[in-house]
Amino acid sequence: MSMGRGGGRHNPAAQGRIRMDKESLRTLRRVFAHIGDGYLGRLVLAMGCIVVSALVSVASALFLRVLIDEHIVPILLAGSRDLSGLASAIGAMGLLYIGGVASSFLYQQMMVSISHGVLRDIRNRMFFSMQRLPLRYFDTHATGELMSRYTNDADAMRQMLSQSIPHVFSSLLTIVFVLTAMLSLSALLTLVVFAVVAVMFFVTARIGGKSANYFSKRQKVLGDLNGYVEEMIDGQKVIQVFSRESAVRADFEDRNEQLFEHTDLANRYGIVLMPIMGNLGNIQYVLIAVFGGMLAMNPSFSLTLGGLASFLTLSKNFTNPVSQISQQINSVVMALAGARRVFRLIDEEPEEDLGHARLVKTDGQGDCRENAARSGACWAWETTGENGETRLVPLAGDIRLQGVNFAYETDKPVLHDVDLFAKPGQKIAFVGATGAGKTTITNLINRFYDVQQGRILYDGIPVQDIRKPDLRRSLGMVLQDTTLFTGTIMENIRYGRLEATDEEVIEAAKLANAHGFITRLPDGYQTVISGTESELSQGQRQLLSIARCAVADPPVMILDEATSSIDTRTERLIQEGMDRLMEGRTVFVIAHRLSTVQNAQAILVLEGGRIIERGDHDDLIAQRGKYYQLYTGMRSV
What we know:
This protein is α/β, with parallel strands linked by helices. It folds into 3 domains: 20-346, Up-down Bundle (ABC transporter transmembrane region fold), CATH 1.20.1560.10; 358-394, no CATH class; 399-632, P-loop containing nucleotide triphosphate hydrolases (Rossmann fold). It is 59% helix and 14% strand. A 6-stranded mixed β-sheet has the order 10-13-14-7-15-16, with helices on both faces. Helix 3 packs parallel to helix 9 (305-346). The two termini are 41 Å apart. The relative contact order is 0.09.
C-alpha cells in the first residue's frame, strides 16, 4: 500500500514547521554524496540552468519599467505612431523568455534523470546490503516494513531530488535576485514586503507545525498498516479456514481509521494554510499599490509608473518563492526521514564471517584449485595452520556438536549442552515435540546463527573458521516451507547449481521422482511458474525443492520435514529416490512422520532442548522410552 507524496504548492504533505536537525543535515549531505558519485556534471549544468531561469524571471519584471517608461508613456504623450522601438524591445524580451523556458525544461529533465539514477544506485545498495544481513534481522523485522523502504521511502527521496531541492535552490536564487531588484526600485516599498513576509512566517510556524506533527504520525501508522496488510495477504488461507474475516476486517478498519484521522487533520491544517498565505499575498499587493501610487505621485521620490508596475510584479515573485521554500523544506525534511530509514538498512551490520577455510576441488592427488563446478568433483577444505602452512582436509561430511548451548533471546535458552556426532555417510534423524530444538540444530550447522557456548566441528574444523559461502555450498537443504521463484521449472531446479546442464537437471528430477509430473505439464521443463501455489500442488512444489537439492550434489544434506506436504503414495514413490540421493552423504532429517526415519543409523530424541535418547529404531523401541511412546502412539508428538 503505497501512498505517494507529491511536491509543489498544493501538496499538503509539504506543509509544516521548518525543522532541519543535525541528523537531517547529515542525511542530506549523504544524499548529495550519492549525487556527486557519477552525476556531478549534470547537477552543475542543472544548477546553471536554474540560475538562468531565475534571472529571466526577474528580467521580465524589470522589463515592465522599460516598456512603460521608455516606450508606452512617450508614445502616448507624443502621439507618435512609430512603434519600431517597442517592437524591438518586445522581440528582445521574447528571445529572453525563450531562453528561460529552455533553461527550465533542461534543468527539470536533468533533475529527473539524476533522481532516477541516484535511486537506482541506492536501491542496488539496499538490496546488496539486505542480502548480507543475518537471518536474525529478518526474524525481527516485518516484510511489509522492509518493503516500505523500497517503495514509500525511496519514492519520497525521488520527489525530493527531482522537485523539492531544485525548487528550493530556484526559490533562493529568485529571492536574492528579486530583493536586489526591489531595493533598486524602492527601499520603502521593500520594507512593506518584509513586513508581510514576517506575518507569513509567523502563520506558517503556528499552523504548519500542527500539520507536520500529524504527518509524522501518519507515516508511522502507514508503515504499520503496510506490514499488517502484507501479513494478512500471506495468511489469507488461515483467515478463511477459521472464518476470521470479520475480526480481521474490524482490526484493519481500526488501523485504517487511525491513518484517516492523522491524514485528515494534517491535510486540514495544510489546506487552510494556502488560502491564508494567498490572501496575505493579495493584501500585500494592495498595500504596495496604494503606497506605491502615493510615492509615484510625489515628485520627491524617483518611483515612476513603470517602476511601480515592475515592483508589483516583483513583490509577487518574492512572496511566492518564500512560501515555496517553507513548503519544500518541510517536504525535504519528511523525505530525509525516509532517507534515514533507507540508509539505516544500508548501514546494518552484515552477517559476521571471520572464516578463512575455503572449499576447493581436487583431483585426489593434492593438486587443488578454487571451487568452480561441483558435479563429479573431489572436494576438500583448504585451511591455514598456526604456522602459516596451507593444508587440505578432505571433505567427508563429519559433523560434531560439542557442549552446544544456544538461545535466540538471552533469557530463553533453546539448546542445553547438546553433544552429537554424525559420521560421514550417516543418516541422523531428529524427532521430538515442536519447539524441542530440532530445526535450531540445523540452523547452527549452516551458521544461520552462531553458538553461544560449545562448538561445532565440520571434518574437524570449527564451522566459525569456514567461510559462510563455502560452508553453505557444501550443505543441501530441503525445507518444510518450499520457495519457488518466477521462471521455468528448469530454472527453479537449476537454482541449486546454476552451471548444471539440462541433462543434469533432468537426472536430478528423476532422482527425486519429479520427472513424471513435469513431463505432463503443458511445456514440460520449460513450463513457467510464478512462484505462487496456484500452478502446482504443495507436494509437487516439494518434489521440485528436493530435485533442486539433488542437482546441487552436496556432501551433507538437511531435510527439515521434507516430506511433510507429500501424500503417502507420493512418499512411497520418492523414498527410493531419496535413499539414492542420500547414499554416501551425511544426512540430517527432521520429521514428525516417524516412518520416514526408521532406516536412520541414529535417531536423536529431543525434549526441552536436550537430547534424551539416542540409537537406531530397534534400540529405541527396545528402550520403551520417549521414542517408543511417540512411535506406538501412546503419546503424540
